[in-house]
Amino acid sequence: MSAEPSIEKDRRSPATGAAVSAEESGCVYPTVSGASVHALGPFTLDVMPAEFVAIIGPSGCGKSTFLRSVADLHGPGYTRGKLSVCGVTPEEARRGRRVGFMFQQPALLPWRTVIDNVRLPLQVAGVKDPPVQPEELIELVGLTGFEDALPRECSGGMRQRAAMARSLMLTPSVLLLDEPFASVDEITRDRLNLALQDIWTATRPAVLYVTHSLTEAVFLADRVVVMSARPGRVAATVDVPFERPRSLDLRATIDFLEVTNRVRDSVRQEAESPESAATGGRLEPWET
């Protein structure tokens, strides 16, 4: 892919050098009965600038909750502990347009063309002179020639590529991806994994990538974080040593299988731990 947007930003936290820094962070949800549910934490994790971190764990453990905390998508009073994004609070990072979010469903506006969907963040934010043009991102995600197509005229993979371009439109320092390829077929998912690798190489944000696929996590990430059952904590971290760019052939190698098995063993050990058995995925109150 030839188009490589020039993005010069301070992606670091002055205090820690991290793009995202969570220290004993957590999240509490109110229930209809008036009680509180401890959904996440204490959760401690630093993600460095331009680092690609995959997060895996059982359903309901708080993976998406953590991403929403980083993106400042929770209401006031939900979060606990310390959480900073690019050295400021999540709210300040959101207002400063430092965070991009790509959800599982592309959620493109059906009446807008591909390029108009990609332009949408500029219009919402009132940005008239962006550091990267929509046409550049269209080329970067491999949709040149489909700028004027409506979402219904695009395949599922093409819609996901358009959503990826939209999430990069404001050149975020931190990119959050919540199972973005879970709804597409395996072959398309492989192609999107390669496309994401190319896009990340060109733009270099810090990435938090939630997935249930161990293979996908190891293929894409520099580091795989294994979370415990609710309330989610960091149960284990597995470093991924492979050089980039990575081809799909890597997944058939002994070295790749060994790293994937280490991740699988960490997941299994956590699932069989006394702490996990004690919670059983139940909603636990926040410990005051």
Query: Biggest sheet: strands side by side, in what order?
Result: 5-6-7-3-8-9
Report the total helices.
9
Give the low-pLDDT segments. 1-15, 280-288
- Main beta-sheet annotation: 6 strands, mixed
Average pLDDT over all residues: 86
In N-to-C order, the SSE pattern is: EEEHEHEHHHEHEHEEHH
Task: Return the structural class.
Answer: alpha/beta
Q: Oligomeric form of this entry?
A: single chain
Please report the total strand number as a whole number: 9
Strand content: 15-25%
**Whole-angstrom Rg:** 19 Å
Helical content band: 25-40%
**CA(first)-CA(last) distance:** 51 Å
Which SSEs are present, and which pair or pack?
Blueprint: E1 20-30, E2 36-47, E3 52-56, H1 63-70, E4 79-85, H2 90-95, E5 99-102, H3 114-125, H4 134-140, H5 156-167, E6 174-178, H6 186-203, E7 206-210, H7 214-220, E8 223-227, E9 234-239, H8 254-271, H9 274-279
Parallel strand pairs: 3-7, 3-8, 5-6, 6-7
Antiparallel strand pairs: 1-2, 1-4, 8-9
Helix pairs in contact: 3-5, 5-6, 7-8
